[in-house]
Amino acid sequence: MRTVAGLVLRRLATLIPLMLGVILFIFVVLALAPNSAAVYALGDAATPQQIAAFDHAHGLDRPLLVRYAAFLGDLLNGDLGTTYTLNQPVGSIIGQALPVTLQLTGLGVLGAVLVALVLGVVAALYRDRWPDQLIRAVSVAGIAMPSFWLAILLIQRLSTIGGGPFPSGHYIAPADSFAGWIESMALPAIALAVPVGCGLARVVRTSMVEELDRDYVRTAIGAGLPPVVVVGRNVLRNALVTPLTALGLQIGYLIGGAVIIEAIFSLPGMGTQIMAAVQQNDIGLARGVVITIALAFIVVNLVVDLLYLVLNPRLRGAH
Questions:
Q1: Is the pLDDT of residue 111 over 90?
Q2: Domains parsed from the chain with CATH numbers
């Protein structure tokens, strides 16, 4: 337990400078953007005096390091600032949009894991036979299929627009109707999960094949243990270490893909807010949304890293 606790503390210690570096990078990049937020907010007819007053009111006329220090201090207090165009708290906007993105990302992860496990395990158990060949072709097709193209195809074929049973273009909160929430999120989750799940299926298949060839598997089966027990209790758990690492690397793709899928399906998530920030040239909103997504990505990868330590006792022993 002390070893695990020490590893967790070391991971958390590296998390803080990483977050500070990410926040600094995002802040500097957006602060150096050539477009003027004041011109967009006030209009092209704004006078130099009005632009100067706008910049002073939002602290845009201060040195960059001073602005960063002030923003970081507010961020530590849970304040992401205000939008430049509507003068609304960025935190309240993100508080409404982030749950939608997390719901879609969570469903995408669940769907990707189910696809990867089913395809990967079946392909490994029937390696070099026709089920393996068929799954290999399906996996390659799924990997090559862009999520946004799959989303458009699903809308045309399975949504109410194309005569299908699933709604498209609106979001139903789970608190209002759980069944309605499932229906409104089904197509976006499928579009997000299929490419990632097909890619992970290849990793699961390779890991399973390597594990099935180990001596302990042949010994356990030769001792009379049912193959189902050996595969389910030992092989699958040991083989999931590498796919879990690959899944952690795919979390960023899922979050970024969720942003695009939200725009296609008109879901009120972080993607909608990014689109609004770009269209309105609202650096304050864009900064808050991008930082939130980046920090969420870092935290999720930390969780995956810790799960990797739990599933791999040899790695714990090495530390």
A1: yes
A2: 93-280 (1.10.3720.10)
